[in-house]
Specification:
This protein is mainly beta. It has one helix at 3-16; strands at residues 24-28, 34-53, 56-78, 83-93, 96-103, 119-144, 148-166, 169-172, 180-183, 189-210, 213-224, 228-233, 238-244, 248-261, 264-286, 292-314. The chain has a 16-stranded antiparallel β-sheet that branches. A hairpin with a 3-residue loop joins strand 6 (119-144) and strand 7 (148-166).
Length: 316
């Protein structure tokens, strides 16, 4: 992703959004052992859908969404003996989405670089159908003093995202190199793509308080387990179902807060997540006849997300 440009643009959108769009409120039980929080912000996400033939990449579809609205709810529980449990759910909606489809088909492709494609289609009228993430984590505080805490834990996370591309333009190599150009009907759905990524991870969590300032961060590393994706080519009545192997996952988030009132803190937060490319097998299904065929080690997919937030946390 073009992180620098998008980060600046995304942060500008958050800063100019209504206060409720990036604010967080938190409700806590009387003894402080249970708390509920809800937040809102913006994020950018990207997924790569890859097709291989004999180990050679022959297709890449790049799905992107910027300035996606993000809402989140979290339940935190303080357990006995320094143990903590956290459950969270996030959902994304709207934003500006786009898809570009590249193919490298012999004899017209001139190489394997991004500028060596034989066929390309662009679909600026792409919609984010859904994005949601569910997470459960159990951790234990390993170190604590008057200013800082350090905890270790592990958890499970599930990410589900889907796009649909409509209309667009194409350049194909038919009788010659990039010799055939045209457009798809504007309102016709061409391709839908869905990724489902279950993840098991280990986590390192830390906080530090100095006066009215509070710094919190988390680093997670894990693996996908039983991941899959689904591609529907609506014009061709074909569905491609991929079963993806294990792939590494990393994520990090940081939050800087300043206590502006005894029960309120102003904060700036940022989060990153990267699911590296997972490879797997593809089953092609004719959705009209039901006939299917499986291709070994022909699929690949990855996912990344970046979020920025700012607002106020209230404590009651």
């Amino acid at each position: 992703m073009r992180h620098t440009v998008r980060t600046i643009a995304l942060f500008s959108l958050i800063a100019s959004a209504p206060q409720g769009q990036a604010a967080e409120l938190i409700t806590q039980s009387l003894d402080g052992s249970i708390s509920l929080s809800g937040s809102a912000g913006l994020m950018t996400i990207e997924a790569n859908e890859l097709v291989y033939d004999g180990g050679q990449r022959i297709s890449r579809l790049v799905w992107e969404s910027d300035a996606v609205g993000l809402v989140n709810g979290t339940l935190d529980m303080e357990l006995q003996n320094s143990w903590k449990a956290r459950f969270s759910a996030s959902g994304g909606f709207g934003g500006d989405s786009d898809m570009t489809d590249y193919d490298w088909i012999a004899p017209f492709s001139t190489g394997e670089g991004m500028d060596d494609w034989s066929d390309r289609s662009r679909h600026p009228d792409t919609k984010l159908d859904h994005y949601y993430r569910l997470e459960a984590e159990l951790s234990r505080t390993m170190f604590e003093d008057a200013y800082s805490t350090l905890g270790l834990g592990g958890g499970l996370r599930y990410t589900d995202v889907k796009w649909s591309a409509y209309g667009g333009s194409f350049i194909y190599s038919d009788a010659g190199f990039r010799d055939f150009r045209g457009r798809f009907p504007d309102d016709e759905r061409g391709i839908s793509y869905r990724q489902q990524f279950p993840v098991a991870y280990a986590a390192l969590n830390a906080t530090h308080v100095t006066g009215d300032w509070r710094l919190a961060g988390a680093l997670q590393g894990g693996l996908t387990v039983g991941a899959r994706d689904t591609d529907d080519h609506w014009m061709r009545a074909l569905r491609f179902e991929d079963r993806l192997d294990t792939a590494p996952v990393i994520s990090a988030n940081v939050e800087v807060g300043y206590q502006i009132m005894p029960n309120a803190t102003f904060y700036l937060g940022a989060g990153l997540e990267k699911i590296f490319e997972a490879r797997g097998d593809t089953t092609m299904v004719d959705t009209t006849s039901g006939a299917s065929q499986t291709f070994a080690d022909s699929a690949g997919g990855d996912f990344s997300a970046m979020s920025l937030s700012m607002g106020v946390k209230g404590r009651f």
